[in-house]
Design goal:
The chain has 326 residues and is α/β, with parallel strands linked by helices. Helices cover 22% and strands 33% of the residues. The chain is built from eight helices and 17 strands. The strands form four sheets. Strands 13-12-11-14-15-17-16 form a seven-stranded mixed β-sheet. A four-stranded antiparallel β-sheet has the order 2-3-1-4, with helices on one face. Strand 6, helix 2 and strand 7 form a beta-alpha-beta unit.
């Protein structure tokens, strides 16, 4: 049975494996294999693999002596790993139970199995879960050298956005003032601070802010992170004109907060604006909204128009990297 693998030239293999391992994407249940002059590195989540790599289906052998869930089931299972937790999405409780039992019996290094029990809901963007195995819904996730403790039932978090977050993180320079308007548990704020930025993160979810503070401590950047629980529109007055970089990852309604983002912006500021739009015009609505909020006080230059992922049929999750110059 084929598994998703990154295919690279053999001479690039170790560097590529290192990058994938740093992102927590290497599938340790299958062997890295050489075939036809290329190296095939099995990955756990092909959607999170950086775009510059080629992902293919390849019949990578199961690591010798290891049993995988598929070996114990009569169907081809689908699941997602985050730390030592496996997430499944099964409507049939009997099938979910069978899959959970196979996951625990396999050699996957996991202790918890969760089944999605609802869609994301509410202003805090959380979902319900059925706990099929394990003690609770708290997980420890590692991503590009940072680690994040979080409770999947209490906060919003998507490991599939790791590559996009890393793309933005690599733009940050030491000494920057970075403001994340919807910070969650810190997947932007923490790596920004690790690169030397001074960061403020706000969120209306008190539990997320508690985890953000804990994650700042865990990653050794508590001295560079200010975490504030509250509506960013009520907090921004204390930071007018402060930010060199603003992150707006609230794609269904970020446009409602653009006036606040502009108020936060300093004389020279980068804005990372996330949106969900129809494929016919994925970038236009966001760009028009940004210009309406920022001009004429700022010159607006859209440097990057990028599709992060497909969100729904004919809808895309996109990002605009925008340079604002007063």
């Amino acid at each position: 049975m084929g598994v998703p693998c990154v295919r690279v030239a053999r001479e690039d293999g170790e560097a590529t494996r290192g990058r994938l391992a740093e992102a927590g994407l290497v599938d340790d249940g299958h062997d890295i294999t050489v075939a036809d002059g290329s190296l095939y590195i099995p990955v756990t989540d092909p959607a999170a693999v950086p775009e510059e790599f080629v992902v293919v289906e390849f019949d990578a052998p199961v690591r010798e002596g290891q049993t995988m869930p598929a070996d114990l089931l009569s169907f081809d299972p689908s699941y997602e790993r985050i730390g030592e937790t496996v997430i499944v999405d099964e409507d049939d409780p009997d099938r979910a139970r069978e899959l959970a039992d196979a996951i625990l019996e396999s050699d996957l290094p996991v202790t918890t199995v969760l089944d999605r029990a609802s869609k994301i809901k509410g202003t805090e963007r959380v979902r319900d879960w059925d706990l099929l195995a394990g003690d609770d819904t708290e997980v420890l996730h590692r991503e590009y050298g940072s680690e994040f403790l979080l409770d999947l039932a209490e906060v919003y978090f998507s490991p599939r956005l790791a590559t996009e977050r890393h793309r933005v993180v690599e733009k940050v320079r030491p000494g920057e003032h970075a403001f994340d308007m919807f910070a969650g548990v810190g997947p932007f704020v923490i790596p920004f601070a690790r690169r030397g930025a001074v960061c403020v993160g706000t969120d209306i979810n008190e539990t997320a802010i508690d985890y953000l503070r804990e994650n700042a401590r865990r990653n050794g950047v508590a001295d560079r992170v200010t975490a504030i629980c509250g509506d960013v529109r009520e907090v921004a007055g204390d930071y007018e004109g402060w930010a060199d970089r603003v992150v707006m990852n609230l794609p269904h309604s970020a446009d409602e907060f653009l006036e606040t983002a502009v108020a936060l912006a300093g004389d020279d500021c980068w804005l990372h604006y996330y949106d969900i739009q129809h494929e016919d015009d994925p970038y236009g609505p966001g760009e028009r909204a940004i210009r309406a909020a920022a001009e004429p006080a700022y010159d607006v230059c859209v440097e990057t128009r990028h599709t992060v992922r497909s969100y729904a049929p004919h809808e895309h999750n996109v990002v605009l990297d925008v340079h604002l110059t007063r």
